[in-house]
Amino acid sequence: MNVYDSWRIAAMLDARGMCATKSVADADIIILNTCSVREKATNKVFSELGRIRDTKKPDALFGIVGCVAREAGAKAFHRIPELNFVLGPQSYHRLPEILENPDTKLLNIDLAGLEKFDELPQMIKAPTVSYIPIQEGCNHCCTYCIVPYTRGREISRAFDDVMRDTAAAAKTGAVEICFLGQNVNGYKYTDENGKTYRLSDLIRATAVMPEIRRIRFTSSYPTEMTDDLIDMFRTEPKLLPFLNMPIQSGSPDVLKRMNRPYSLDSYLEIIDKLRAARPDIQISSDFIVGFPGETDSDFEKTVDIARRVKYINSYSFKYSPRPHTAAALMPNQIPENIKRARLAILDNELNEIQREFNEQCINKTMLCLCEGPDKTGRHLLYRTPYMQQCIVTKKTDQAPETMAQIKITAANRASLRGEFVKD
After folding, report:
1. Alpha helices in 32-114 (DSSP H)
2. What CATH number does the domain located at 365-420 have?
3. Is 93 helix (H, G, I), strand (E, B) or coil?
4. Homologous superfamily of 2-108 in CATH?
5. Backbone angles phi, psi at 390, to 5 degrees
6. Which CATH class is domain 115-282+319-327?
7. In whole angstroms, how far apart are CA 351 and each of 127, 342, 347, 357, 358?
């Protein structure tokens, strides 16, 4: 979602005759698009703002947009008085106001809904992988999560609006569509005629576009993984055989305190249904270790679920107390040294599972999507259908194929090596 927001901000400024620069010292406007899911991210934002203040041109405008702006609000001006604007994640379409009135300070952290999608200009050219938001906010209110505060309650975009953006992306260069939402598979829109659309309908309508070769979505919630969506993995070959479905913890007690309303049995039943629908599907997850009250036994259950499901690529974090969340006020907060030790154990387990899966891919041929050259310029970076990075030696000085059949020749935990399949 943050990548998409940054693209749209850049497109909006491009439309006003501005161009990007890599140097803060040369910039006329500097915008930090921010995430507040973890405390460390918020702290880094204000450290960076201090560096920008000391580096920028005296008349350059600078400020923050996104979730930290929503979290900090007017307090951001107290911490960094030189800031020109603080705009929440649903207010950044108001940036032109600060360009037109550079001597004023602009604060807007309202959760206004979906107005920004109507206000933003259409992107002139889509990237090869185009992110399409279909809903914002979340109603699940997990006790550790700040999203309902920073992004608001769940709201789905109109089906026709989503398809308009998808069609525009397909016509201007997109090969892969990634549908986005804080609770993406909870997408539900009812039109004026009473017809209700779900994520499966968006996938089905997108798949008929000849320009689109790959479709995926993130991030999904277990209880929203409905049978019609699961069946799409059976019937639609353009839908990648890869799904991020966060479990967060393998302990029923911890899940209850997190307000995650599913049992381990129901979660595993969904996994079984997905694998029955698409035998080659692979799953990734998110994990939080050191949640308040987590015992050694609770943590072992998390490690056990990772072994049972065999997640091929996961994100794991130490629990971070966030303002406006119930978990921050819970008793039995876990000491930092214990959280650190547990995270290291889980990461080692997840890394080993990922390495094993990557090695199993050796000698397989996959249709992969090009992301461009690496830093050396001697290799090309491709993404497999499982979102693994595959490094391939360039063949010629000609432009690389957007999609290519690549045989995997080597693997480690982080990436694959491959070669183009000869014609």
Report:
1. 39-55, 67-72, 75-79, 95-100
2. 2.40.50
3. helix
4. Methylthiotransferase, N-terminal domain (3.40.50.12160)
5. -125, 125
6. alpha beta
7. 30, 14, 6, 10, 10
For 200-248, the DSSP string reads HHHHHHHHT-TT--EEEEE---GGG--HHHHHHHHH-TTB-SEEE---B
Residues paired with 132 in a beta bridge: 179
Please tell me the distance from the alpha carbon of residue 71 to that of residue 353, in angstroms, as a whole number: 36
Q: What phi and psi, each to the nearest 5 degrees, are found at residue 239?
A: -75, 120
Q: How many CA atoms lie within 13 Å of 315's alpha carbon, on the beta-carbon side?
A: 6
Q: What is the mean pLDDT of residues 368-391?
A: 95
Quickly count: other Cβ atoms within 10 Å of residue 291's Cβ. 27
Q: Give the model's pLDDT for residue 423.
A: 65
* Strand 416-420 relative to strand 389-393, pairing: parallel
Q: For residue range 98-127, what is the model confidence (pLDDT) as tens digits?
A: 999 999 999 998 876 677 777 776 777 789
Domain ranges of the chain: 2-108, 115-282+319-327, 365-420
Q: How far apart are CA 404 and CA 380, in angstroms?
A: 11
